[in-house]
Specification:
Strand order of the largest sheet: 1-3-2
Radius of gyration: 23 Å
Number of domains: 2
Order of helices and strands: HHHHEHEE
Structural class: alpha+beta
Largest sheet: 3 strands, antiparallel
Shape: elongated
Number of helices: 5
Helix content: 55-70%
Distance between the termini: 30 Å
Strand content: 5-15%
């Protein structure tokens, strides 16, 4: 979220320093409207990445060349924060590189605990070291959708 704040600040600072028309505002509104309403749902990380990318490209194209040091400062800060945040967030996820969707049937003696689910996953796919996340418990078809990281 710090990255979004930095991007917003740098764009607002840029817009106060140069003469722009109303068209750039409508253009930005159109970009974010299309991203929000016309495409698939994005994760928060993807939205932040898109916002930072759009901000950096707007800064590149519109910033006055006479103030190149300020442009480089904004870009270095935004990219630096993004890299640091990516390393912090993805540190946990880097243990398992692959994932697979698994469906486990719900039977009468099913218990929703980690040990039973791990045992069911190991019976279905023959791997020892993995982690899982429950995606959906479907009572209509009597099965659980899992995302297994291995």
């Amino acid at each position: 979220m710090v990255i979004v704040g930095l991007c917003t600040f740098s764009l607002c600072y840029l817009f106060t320093k140069i003469e722009i028309g109303v068209g750039i505002g409508f253009g930005l509104f159109a970009i974010f409207s299309i991203l929000r309403f016309r495409t698939q749902s994005f994760t928060v990380n993807a939205i932040i990445f898109l916002f930072a990318t759009i901000t950096l490209s707007i800064l590149d194209i519109m910033y006055p060349f006479e103030k190149i040091e300020l442009l480089l400062f904004f870009q270095t800060i935004i990219i630096g924060f993004y890299i640091i945040a990516s390393i912090i967030v993805n540190k946990k996820a880097s243990k398992y590189l692959n994932s697979v969707d698994v469906k486990i049937p719900l039977d009468d003696n099913f218990a929703l605990n980690s040990v039973y689910i791990r045992k069911s996953i190991q019976e279905k796919i023959k791997i020892e070291e993995f982690d899982f996340r429950i995606v959906l418990i479907n009572t209509a078809t009597n099965e659980i959708d899992l995302l297994v990281f291995y």
